[in-house]
Write a structure and sequence with these properties.
This protein has two domains: 2-60, no CATH class; 63-301, Fido-like domain (Fic-like fold). It has helices spanning 39-59, 71-78, 91-108, 118-123, 130-147, 154-165, 199-213, 219-233, 240-254, 267-280, 284-301, and strands at 2-8, 11-22, 25-35, 62-64, 67-69, 181-183, 189-192. The protein has 308 residues and is α+β, with helices and mostly antiparallel strands.
Length: 308
């Protein structure tokens, strides 16, 4: 917010101005403060006007890429956060989570590595073949997000892709320069990434939205939105799902929440909630799904978890 001065004859009128985005356009709210105000009068009027503008902003819809959410809708989504038990993993639990996540996130994308093979592969000095490289790469990426101090950025997203696929994909860490389509086993188109010509704009918009809106949402809802939008954009030729799930957990960990493992056995439901977001602009199924995955994750990883 800033004070705007306007001359009107021999007088000076003062306004408090706030700029905000609404459906991709920059809009302004102006609140008249008075004219020819002394310094103390201006400061008092400014503080009163600030409260008025903040109240107006609370009533405005929040733009979420494909749709908008009212204040009431945000509050309802944020309530799902109460179903999450916050706890911190010890070293053994982190190892268990890393193995579970690495197996499942790769298996969802078609890896043939079995769950009981993961510890052996992670213990090897040198990987053999693309699948082993990606097993070690995903585990390395989990360790990276566990300790990273940076915030969400395009640079981070590219780095996660590079860590996962260095040595197994020639385009590791590089944004795509082609169009991408996701098809079902029957050949039906499930999703088409944003056109390449709009890719950089879409990613920049996603990061800008995150910076502007991250404090409006509880960590679980914020992570869900960013994960779903990353999947919608599809910034890489391949490996988008794995990077999206790492981004989800990066945001949770940054907010002192335990991470989520999305299970292979729930892949069909996972795809369904992503489709619900992309086609019907409905975020609630994703958040409900993640709450269930959270509970399953904690049951598998730690003995400290007790059913709520």
């Amino acid at each position: 917010m800033y004070v705007e001065k306007r001359k009107a004859g021999k007088n000076i009128k003062y306004y408090l101005v706030h700029s905000y985005r609404d459906k991709g356009k920059v809009r302004k709210i102006r609140k008249y403060l008075g004219r020819n105000l002394a310094k103390e009068e201006l400061e008092k009027a400014k503080n009163n006007a600030k409260l008025h503008i903040l109240k107006l902003l609370e009533e405005l819809n929040t733009e979420v890429f494909l749709f908008t959410l009212t204040k009431n809708q945000i509050e309802k989504l944020n309530r799902f956060d109460k179903n999450i038990r916050i706890m911190h993993f010890n070293q053994k639990e982190w190892q268990q989570f890393t193995e579970e996540f690495t197996y499942n996130t790769n298996a969802i994308e078609g890896s043939t590595v079995q769950r009981d093979e993961v510890p052996e592969i992670l213990g090897k000095q040198k990987a053999s073949g693309a699948e082993e490289l990606e097993t070690k790469g995903v585990a390395k990426a989990v360790n990276y997000i566990k300790n990273a101090k940076e915030d969400v950025s395009i640079k981070l997203i590219k780095k996660l892709h590079n860590i996962c696929f260095e040595g197994s994909k020639s385009f590791a860490g590089q944004l795509r320069k082609v169009e991408v389509v996701v098809k079902s086993s029957k050949g039906d188109i499930l999703h088409q990434g944003v056109p390449f010509s709009q890719l950089h704009l879409a990613l920049n918009d996603m990061i800008s939205w995150y910076k502007e809106n991250k404090n409006k949402f509880k960590p679980l809802v914020l992570a869900a939105i960013m994960h779903n939008q990353s999947e919608y954009i599809h910034p890489f030729r391949d490996g988008n799902g794995r990077v999206g799930r790492l981004l989800l957990n990066f945001i949770l960990l940054k907010n002192k929440y335990p991470p989520i493992n999305i299970s292979l056995e729930d892949r069909a439901e996972y795809y369904r909630v992503l489709q619900e977001y992309q086609k019907n602009q409905n975020l609630k199924p994703t958040v409900e799904f993640l709450v269930r995955q959270y509970r399953d994750t904690l049951r598998r990883v730690t003995t400290k978890y007790k059913k709520i």
